[in-house]
Amino acid sequence: MDIATLSSQLLIGLSRGMIFFIVAAGLTLIFGVLRITNFAHGSLYMLGAFAAYSVSTSLGHGHYGFWLALLVAPITVMILSLIIERGLLRFIYNRDHLTQMLLTYSLVLIAGDAVKIIWGSEYKSINIPEGLRGSISIWGASLPLYNAFLLLIGPLVALGLWLFLSKTHLGKICRATATDREMVDILGINSTRVFALVFALGGWLAGLGGTLIAPTTTVSMGMDANILIYAFLIVVIGGLGNIWGTLISSIIIGMGEAIGVLLIPSVSIILPYMIAGILLIFRPSGLLKSVW
Amino acid sequence: MLEIKDIHTYYGMSHILFGLSLTVAQGEVVSLLGRNGVGKTTTLKSVMGIVPPKSGEITFRGQTITKIPTNRMVKLGISYVPDSRRIFADLTVRENLEIAAGIRPGDWTIAKVHTLFPVLKKYENRRGGSLSGGEQQMLSIGRALLGNPDLLILDEPTEGLAPLIVRELEEQILELCSTGISILLAEQNLKSALKLANRCYVLERGQVRFEGTVEALAENEEVRTKYLLA
Ligand SMILES: Nc1ncnc2c1ncn2[C@@H]1O[C@H](COP(=O)(O)OP(=O)(O)OP(=O)(O)O)[C@@H](O)[C@H]1O
Ligand SMILES: [Mg+2]
């Protein structure tokens, strides 16, 4: 195996890591601010992928299908998230963790059945949009153009989240709510609205991740569970609620998975878990500081 | 302006306030005194809707606020400085002030808070958590003032601070009093209370045991030794 193969594999891993980041960032925000373990996060990602499929195929796989899906699918998932939060979750914030887990887990089952009813159980796929087909070469390593696009989107999302959380008034309120929700209420800010906003943003990110992954894989049931496990691993390794930790651990998991496929294919499936285990032995509370 | 009528407050099963009543008039500084655990903080939390009373009534400017959620209090004109200060440690000093501003219109701006507490300007880009106890207390009060309150509720603002800082804070609170704001102040420190307040209530086991002007309390040695160890 030569350096070019290795580096193109690493770049592909890195680009998958960007999607992991986008999804896990939503999960960690929800964790950090609402302190809820949202099992339905993977389902929102899956719904994002299916929504992207519907939007892009209803335009007959035309030029704009994917781009329109990129706009519409995450927003659809965001609206759905808002309905879930206002309609269900907000009634259980003061309940114990078990109740919260049961509720979000029941959403997983409901979403799974809904997908089966609406889209059927056969595999679906979306074409890579026209401008992003083919590949480019980066320092001798060849990389599909679509993956290069993902390498661009990931940092953009990270930058956007950072700007939102550190520069905007609403973002500052979100950070304050993560550390002391009651004090936010004492200052006259309705913290449950902040929860709604963060849950919607988290849902948008899950939907965006699902949309972005769709052209690279088959869109199918079961993609919710796969991403959920990865996203949980990443969130825990990164430090609960810490966006930068999430970015770093997404990259580690994405690249680790890619190297595994190349070097030791027989253990590649469990490699991310092994990496997670080792990292957690050395840093039990995550790579970076948790928000609380 | 604030009237608490015969409230009973519980934490879960434990009954803490037993028919407590008190009033704060416009422009008045009222102090709640009493030893550890008598229910001072609980009284303040009852007003704020953090631990709403099970029975009794609390009115503010004639309006019943007993069942109103905490996050509406600032809009109504009540700001609260809790006992543990509760600074957002990861936000900068300035950000701590920013998120409290603009909720209720009025004279208080960040610049005006900076004039009252210059140290908050000096350290505005530091993390809130890196401030000393006294500075955090100033930040907590500054943050509450940005809600432009008509009634400011302070829970043991000088607790655990060095004597020099206590004196500085007392001066600043006196300066506030002169603006015509009403203040409800929980205190363990009799000296502070006598300096700041017009009237006081002495609590014991969730009930009011003495009520009167600070002068009356200063003269009443029996109440002081029985309920305040002072
Ligand atoms: N969250 C809670 N759950 C159960 N009991 C509580 C809780 N908070 C306070 N208590 C109890 O309620 C009683 C009154 O407490 P409170 O905090 O109102 O007293 P305090 O007068 O403010 O005392 P201190 O001077 O120590 O601040 C105490 O017996 C205390 O143990
Ligand atoms: Mg107290």
TrEMBL record, chain A:
Source organism of the structure: Desulfosporosinus acididurans
UniProt cross-references to Pfam families, sorted A to Z: BPD_transp_2 (PF02653)
Subcellular location field: Cell membrane
Major localization listed first in the record, in broad terms: membrane
Molecular function terms, GO-annotated: transmembrane transporter activity
Record membrane topology: Multi-pass membrane protein
Family designation: Belongs to the binding-protein-dependent transport system permease family. LivHM subfamily.
Record's keyword terms, sorted: Amino-acid transport, Cell membrane, Membrane, Transmembrane, Transmembrane helix, Transport
Source taxonomy: Bacteria, Bacillati, Bacillota, Clostridia, Eubacteriales
Superkingdom: Bacteria
Any one Gene Ontology BP term: amino acid transport
CDD domains for the chain: TM_PBP1_LivH_like (cd06582)
Database matches in PANTHER family: ABC TRANSPORTER ATP-BINDING PROTEIN (PTHR11795:SF442), BRANCHED-CHAIN AMINO ACID TRANSPORT SYSTEM PERMEASE PROTEIN LIVH (PTHR11795)
Protein name: High-affinity branched-chain amino acid transport system permease protein LivH
Segments crossing the lipid bilayer: 17-36, 43-60, 66-89, 101-119, 145-165, 186-207, 227-247, 259-282
GO CC annotation, single: plasma membrane
From TrEMBL, chain B:
A GO BP annotation: L-amino acid transport
InterPro entries in UniProt: AAA+_ATPase, ABC_transporter-like_ATP-bd, ABC_transporter-like_CS, BCAA_Transport_ATP-bd_LivF, P-loop_NTPase
Superkingdom, natural source: Bacteria
Sequence intervals crossing the membrane: none
Domain ABC transporter: 2-230
Keywords for this protein: Amino-acid transport, ATP-binding, Nucleotide-binding, Transport
Record keyword Transport present: yes
Chain coiled-coil ranges: none
A GO MF term: ATP binding
Homology family: Belongs to the ABC transporter superfamily.
Name of the protein this chain belongs to: High-affinity branched-chain amino acid transport ATP-binding protein LivF
Organism, as annotated: Desulfosporosinus acididurans
Top-level taxonomy: Bacteria, Bacillati, Bacillota, Clostridia, Eubacteriales
